[in-house]
Amino acid sequence: MPDLPFHPVVLALGVPLIVWFALERGLALMKFFQQEEYDGVRFVAWLKDNAAVDRRASLWLLAAALLGTISQTLLANAVGVVLNSIGYLVWPMLVLAFVHGALRSRSQRGGSKKPLVLTDRVKRILMVYMGLAVGALVVCLILAGLAPRGHQYGLQLDVNDIRWLSLSYDWRVVVISLLLIAFAQSLPFLLVAANKLLEPAEERVKARFRAEAIEKFTKLQPKVIAITGSFGKTSTKHILQHILSSAAPTLATPGSVNTDMGITRVIREQLTPEHQFFIVEMGAYGPGSIARLCRLTPPDVGLITAVGAAHYERFKTLETVARAKFELAEATFARGGEVVVNPDGIAPDLLAERQAAVPGRYISAGTTGDIRLADSRMTADGLVLTVKDGDEDHILKAPLYGRHQAGNIVQAAAAARAIGLPWAAIKGALASMPQIRHRLEVTRATGSPTIVNDAYNSNPVGFAAALECLDVLVEPGGRRILVTPGMVELGARHDSDHATLGALAAKHCDIVLVVTPDRIPTFLSGLAATNDGSTTVMTYATQAEAEAWVKANWRAGDAVLFENNLPDLYEAKVSF
């Protein structure tokens, strides 16, 4: 067998190749690590659930070890020459292992719904990760160099001029192959370790940015309306922003930005002296997280849209969710402000318990309460609401869709009233309300189907409301079509909520395309139990496949609902 493992040429070519492999694998894994918000525990759980281990490079390396073993045992002169020659294939196989692995990693980065964003933090993590990877590779080479070369076999037998013998065995071939397999399998954990090592530095960076944001915010002092809730907060924020913008310059955190660093960045980069109102969406990722956000932007008015199962997986109980959400009420009352609560989105016992625990001036806005939704109708042109404020009745019209949006409108109107806006201004603003991107966003064109885009962050209440929209938006002779991969982060309620919505889908849909059916078997069973044979059900592995069928088969008059669109974490079939 050729003695090449530590030949200078081999090291000069092989080490850069392995480093390239580590970089490509790191970039591929980082996409999913970023989607898990750099949470090491959740990322490792994702690795386990998806069996995202190295296969291709490891199989090549294992084959190289086996070939190296076979080629070092010579049976005879003629046969021995052949087998010894095979030994030269070990090193091309090692090259193929890392080339194949690197190219496969690169392919996993393509076609992403949410591609990797090379933020400064990502770059720092990758730099430390590559340092750890190079260090691990050096350790592998040192250990391989310490492996014994083996010993000589001296047995020789002459029979008819055929010599049977065994030559020396070099254990380093097998050792280096096995060590490189371990190296390839360790890369995801090196990524987590790199992030962990950077935590102190990241905290210092965050602290500096946060201090700058607090200094700027303290100087500008806009009136803050803070919104939190298990669902509905982003839609309510957009509605409220449109209403307040009709009265004065208003800034709202964009999209679904609701974290400490996200809000900090908005303050540093977008908040100006002209902004009189600042609407801040606050996400609860654990007890104390909203209280921390309130210290960054102390709220003058608070709005709690719901306490529900949208983040059941993180909090485990609704009581824990309620305590986290009502940290907003504590901070608002500390400044003498008012808090709008939605009695339809919070269980009565939880609401009563929290209001008793956190006393203050609450404004109840929903189908019951201080500002009451007396009636709502969904038409082809949007929602028409009758709202009671004391003895007054107000008719509100908004070109928005979904019965749940009626509650969001009422809550936004209640918050605007708490700020001091008159009903006339609220009515005028709602009449010109633009649709909310990817949240029951309806697109219509003559001669084409009606598209209902509810692709972002589906929840049980919104899902049910979206299904009802199909009945209003479908035209005579058209079909009601649903495309959905189901919902996420429902925890223990995952199966029951999907079963309920599956049964509801059978009542409101003519065609249902289920994406990633293995994730939501109870949705399919609930659908089947209620289906009287009039609903056609199809299943697809990816959203793209389902959308391709719809685009090839839709027609004018159809109403097509795209309900949720899972990130790569849930849909991607990862194979390294």
Please, could you describe this protein's structure?
This protein has 576 residues and is of the alpha/beta class. The protein has three domains: 8-202, no CATH class; 221-370 and 400-431, Mur-like, catalytic domain (UDP-N-acetylmuramoyl-L-alanine:D-glutamate ligase, 3-Layer(aba) Sandwich); 441-571, Mur ligase, C-terminal domain (Protein-Tyrosine Phosphatase, Chain A), CATH 3.90.190.20. It is built from 21 helices and 17 strands. A nine-stranded mixed beta sheet has the order 4-5-3-6-7-8-9-10-11, sandwiched between helices. The chain has a six-stranded mixed beta sheet with strand order 12-13-17-14-15-16, with helices on both faces. A two-stranded antiparallel sheet has the order 1-2. Strand 9 and strand 10 form a beta hairpin. Helix 1 packs parallel to helix 5 (90-108), helix 1 (8-35) crosses helix 7 (172-220) and helix 3 (56-71) runs antiparallel to helix 5 (90-108). The protein is globular and about 95 Å long.
